[in-house]
Amino acid sequence: MSWPRRFFRLSDCENEPGSSYENVPPGCSDDDFSHSTKIKSTPHERLTHVLPGKATALPVSPVKMLLARECNYSGRGRFSSSDSCHVLSRYLPTCGPSKIDTIASCAYVSQFSVDGSLFIAGFQDNHIRIYNVDMGWKVKKDIRAKSLRWTITDTCLSPDRRFLVYSSITPIVHIVDVGSGTRDSQANVTETHEGLEFSSNDDYDDGYSFGIFSVKFSTDGREIVAASSDDSIYVYDLESKRQSLRIPAHRADVNAVCFADETGNVIYSGSDDHLCKVWDRRCFISRGQASGVLMGHLEGITFIDSRGDGRYFISNGKDQAIKLWDVRKMSSNVNYVPRRSSLEWDYRWMEFPESAKNIRLPEDISLATYRGHKVLRTLIRCYFSPDYSTGQKYIYTGSTDGTIFIYDVLTGDQVKKLDFHKDPVRDCNWHPYDPMIVSSSWDGMIAAWYPGLSENPLPVKHTRRRRRFFY
Question: Residue 433 and residue 116: Cα distance in Å, rounded?
Fold first, then answer.
């Protein structure tokens, strides 16, 4: 999210040594990443044999794999997790969709709980709904948010599913007790929404200091990390109920933040200064700066998703590209500043120049780039596919044109484009265990995608609404 954006000049790229229009093949050629992905999603070698000694090409049909399992070709008598991922990857959730809910407001957030039993949808009109997935999408809690400024920017459910936090373009994050018996939770009317203050009194200027664009719980549920419009990252300690760390992280709005892995020691951030940065809390106090920086995006970062292994993550950018990163390749030049700037482009109401889409910066250290979707008008999100069912073999993202894109993380190919919504899909989420994707769009609709034919296809007539240009 940003105010009028800085845009690079094409003449700078053409004249600068090392810069080029990208002609490298799509996908990831990094051996370490390719190997770790294949280990998690490729079946046992002996399960690819129809008969002993006769291998078949990948992908292997489920029937042949079941035959090989029953004949105990692998010697285990069962499927391993990689075998299961290979079977499930044949049944991608690309059909449908079926309608879950519709509200007369733009949907900004859609998230499954860690175990997939709950689903959270956040809307612009201060509405948040928590659905019980296992009970036929019955509404478990209907929340009316407090102190919103323009919209709900993010929500996050605690790992134990007891609490939900939500943020807006204000310095206060509110927390709601999900486990209470109250179904209709109206802020400070039917239920208390405690405010977690992320600013000091000195921060305020005419009653407004900054907004929070992204919030995430730590794995143990004791801390919250937040990204803000004052170019900073905040860590809030829930036990002591106070801000425990503020990092002046970037030179522009910080749109995305997340923990690198379960330890909570390392944090990734992405900003409108075009950079992703890595922060190690164990040495930040002594060093006072980022552990490293990753350069390659031509425009601001809208979202970051970690692979969960402390090594790899992806970022979505306003340059209409997703990039894959290896933090072991990060630059130590933490004071790096992108040099190209010109007030020529604003992602909120302008198309990205075609001539700039394939430019590769000389300092680009990303492992791979994925293109095809549109990142305009709002902070579009991207994710790795679930480890349990796909081995994180895919990357998926919403798009401004109302579609969902699924990319093969290794080849870079567009596996599927899910086309249904008539307005931007800001967020979508893949069930952590079942083959199901749920999308949320500015058309106000929450829709679910499944393998095969949908049991309840949507004969819905869309109503076009006035074009919106904000965040």
Answer: 7
Q: In a 3-state reduction of DSSP, which class is residue 281?
A: helix
pLDDT by position in tens, the chain (length 471): 443 344 445 555 544 444 555 556 678 989 999 999 999 988 877 777 555 555 556 788 888 888 888 888 778 888 889 989 988 888 999 998 999 999 999 999 999 999 999 999 999 999 999 999 999 999 999 999 987 888 999 999 999 999 999 999 999 999 999 988 889 998 878 898 999 999 876 555 545 679 999 999 999 999 999 999 999 999 999 999 999 999 999 999 999 999 999 999 999 999 999 999 999 998 886 677 999 999 999 999 999 999 999 999 999 999 999 999 999 999 998 888 876 545 578 999 999 998 888 889 999 999 999 999 999 999 999 999 999 999 999 999 999 999 999 999 999 999 999 999 999 999 999 999 999 999 999 999 999 999 975 444 444 444 444 444 444
Strand partners, 267: 259, 279
Residue 246, SS3?
Answer: strand
The CA-to-CA distance between both ends of the chain, in Å, stands at: 6
* DSSP helix/strand/coil, 46: helix
Separation of alpha carbons 119 and 155, rounded Å? 11
Secondary structure (DSSP) of 373-415: S---SS---EEEPPHHHHTT-EEEEE-TTSEEEEEETTT--EE
Are 330 and 291 in contact by the 8 Å Cβ rule? The answer is yes
The number of residues making up the chain comes to 471
21 forms bridges with which residues in the sheet? Answer: 359
Residue 294 has which token pair?
């990753």
Cα–Cα–Cα angle for 456, 458, 464, nearest 5°? 160
CA distance 456 to 402: 20
Q: Are 449 and 97 in contact (CB under 8 A)?
A: yes
Distance CA 211, CA 128 (A): 19
Residue type at 271 in one-letter notation: S
How many whole angstroms separate alpha carbon 235 and alpha carbon 267? 10
Which residue matches tokens 């956040």? 122
Cis peptide before 97 (omega within 30 of 0): yes
Nearest to 109 by CA among 332, 442, 390, 396: 442
Where in 15-63 does DSSP place strands (E)? 20-21, 49-51, 54-55
